[in-house]
Hints:
The chain is an all-alpha fold. Helix content is 59%, strand content 0%. It contains four helices and no strands. The protein is elongated and about 65 Å long.
Amino acid sequence: MLKNITLSAEDVLIHKARKRAAANQTTLNTLFRKWLEQYAGHGASTSDFEQLMGSLSYAKPGKKLSREEMNGR
């Protein structure tokens, strides 16, 4: 369900932003929704990383490779 919110900004800023959005074939509403999704999901990337690292816990580093071994083809 979508909810309306009210934002305040200078007229000039809104005019410039709408002009730029139109040039990119989008709207301020669409841009704000995308920003809000990214902003709200910002903390999720940390838990996603921790979950990935947990799933890879079975991997154990082996011996330390020499320079020749790392560069060998």
